[in-house]
Amino acid sequence: MEIGALNPSDVLAHARPANVPEDRVFDFDIYRDIPEGIDFHQFWFDLMKTVPHPLMWTPHNGGHWVSLRGEASDVVMSDSERFSNHTVLVPKETAGEAYRLIPLSLDPPEHRPFRNLLNENLGPKPLKPMEGAIVDLTVELIESFASKGECNFVHDFAEQLPVTIFMMLVDLPLADLPKLKHLADQFTRPDGSMTYPEVLTAFRDYLTPVIAERRNGGGEDMISRMVSSRIDGRELTDIEALNICTQVLVGGLDTVVNMLGFTFSYLARDQKLRQAIAADPALINDALLEFFRRFPVVSSAREVRDDVEFEGVTLAKGDMVMSPTIVVAMDTDAGEDPLDFRLNRPGRKHSTFGKGSHTCPGAHLARMEMKIVLREWFARIPEFRLADDAPLSYTNGIVGSVKPFRLVWDV
Ligand code: HEM
Questions:
Q1: Mean pLDDT of the chain, nearest integer
Q2: Who wins on pLDDT, 77 or 181?
Q3: Mutate which of 77, 255, 399 to test ligand 1's pocket (most atoms within 8 Å of Cβ)?
Q4: Residue 254: what pLDDT?
Q5: Parallel/antiparallel/unpaired status of strands 385-386 and 406-408
Q6: What is the CATH number for 243?
Q7: What's the domain range around 125?
Q8: Which one of 70, 249, 346, 358 has the lowest number of neighbouring Cβ atoms within 10 Å?
Q9: How confident is the model at residue 253 (pLDDT cuts 50, 70, 90)?
Q10: What is the pLDDT of residue 389?
Q11: Cα dihedral 127/189/327/273 (nearest 10)
Q12: Is residue 38 classed as helix, strand or coil in its secondary structure?
């Protein structure tokens, strides 16, 4: 695999900081695609086996640590005394600086009142009325291609359903979706078409009039409710309103799309599992738990508050530590054969939705959508497979993804 200790001249070229031991330096770039022919989670699993340390350091993206053990990753994500949310993206000076969004970039106790605004909008009760719309749209999309015997799963389905539902939740026009999705992707998987400040400015230009119109306008959509709320007895400032709305757009537009891609590209290759679910749809409940364990996608980071000893090295104040949720589920300490998909897996351990106070507020919506999709899909297309023999391709990044692939079935 494309990972190895950098040779000393490379190390010197990137000015390894004094607190980084030479044997912790590896050539790893989170924004580099997964090498062709290698599965996304296999890549991370192999990386964990290749690097004999719980933390490695890479000179890429401004230079940062990467946690490669489940326990270390969970601690970095949740211990706000040592690891701050002030910066959560690398490179710190560019992406990190632009992504000071609310509430992800806030530490407790400032985080809590803003987080409450999200919980009030994304919990089971406020989302209940959305259920019918999710079912209708799922059925409509599946039936638009079921009789053709094929679809591009990512373009025709995964990129349509969750984002359309999300645009309904925030009551924004579907016509704006391509633009917003492109912007959201620039934070998680930048393609070089825009600088980070340009992305932030574009979000602000888009959201400023929306917020001005909806503040105290009595609307029932998520943006109206959030920007009309009070925290600690006061209104949100303009910048707080912008930052929380941008955060919700970024969080809501990408993740379920990719979770669907991983889930269906796996199902297409596991005939036994497909047949089991088709014969007994009640298995979907347990399968869902295993899909969420088996396919974590997010690699977030934290900023070290003060010099601290951690996992055998000295982390310096201001260092960035990436703590991929992927390594929690792929750690053999968390359960045997983590790459295997197992119904009824005992004691499932994962942090797919994060760990600690920033644990994903969108998890309920994600679970609801995934469950409806599996149920409605299997009711209409119980048997399907990948159209091409070529191996799937994957992007890495803050949110990993499967590149578009086609499914076929008999009609
Ligand atoms: C399968 C789908 C999803 C996955 C795997 C996922 C994963 C995560 C993870 C790992 C975090 C924690 C990041 C950190 O601590 O640095 C997070 C936070 C967040 N997610 Fe999700 N997410 C998903 C769906 C969603 C959806 C649908 C929404 C919005 C509707 C959403 C909105 C957010 C927000 C706003 C935060 C920040 C919360 C805070 O700072 O308190 N997510 N998500």
A1: 94
A2: 77
A3: 255
A4: 84
A5: antiparallel
A6: 1.10.630.10
A7: 82-296+338-408
A8: 346
A9: confident
A10: 85
A11: 60
A12: coil
**Closest ligand 1 atom number to CA of residue 114:** 41
In a domain, 276, yes or no: yes
Ligand 1, atom 32: nearest CA belongs to which residue? 251
Residue 386 structure tokens = 């990948």
Q: What is the DSSP letter of 301?
A: E
Instruction: Count the Cβ atoms, other than its own, within 10 Å of residue 291.
Output: 21
**Percentage of the chain lying above the pLDDT 90 cut:** 88
| C-alpha–C-alpha distance, residues 352 and 319, integer Å | 24
Helix, strand, coil fractions of the chain, as percent rounded to 5: 50, 10, 40
Contact yes or no for 298/189 (Cβ under 8 A): no
pLDDT at 164: 92
CA of 251 to the centre of ligand 1 (A): 5
C-alpha–C-alpha distance, residues 257 and 154, integer Å: 8
Which pLDDT score is estimated for 98?
86
DSSP assignment of 223-243: HHHHHT-EETTEEPPHHHHHH
Using CA atoms of 68, 72, 74, 80 in order, give the dihedral in degrees to the nearest 10.
-130
Confidence class for position 282, pLDDT limits 50, 70, 90: very high
Rounded Cα distance, 288 and 273, in Å: 12
158-162 contacts at long range (C-beta below 8 A, 24 or more positions apart): 158/257, 158/258, 158/260, 158/261, 158/264, 159/257, 161/134, 161/137, 161/256, 161/260, 161/369, 161/373, 162/252, 162/256, 162/257, 162/260, 162/366, 162/369
137 in a structural domain? yes
Query: Would you give the DSSP letter of residue 5?
Result: B
Residue 1 pLDDT more than 70? no
282 in any annotated domain? yes
Query: Is 354 touching ligand 1 by the criterion CB < 6 Å?
Result: yes
Atom of ligand 1 minimally distant from the CA of 298: 10
Q: Provide the pLDDT for residue 251.
A: 85
Best CA proximity match to 210, nearest among 244, 163, 178: 244
Is the CB of residue 249 below 6 angstroms from any atom belonging to ligand 1? no
pLDDT of residue 15: 75
Residue 1 lies in a domain: no
Statement: residue 14 has pLDDT above 70 = no
Q: Count up the domains in the chain and report the number.
A: 1
Q: Rg of the chain's alpha carbons, rounded to an integer?
A: 21
* CA 384 to centroid of ligand 1, rounded, Å: 30
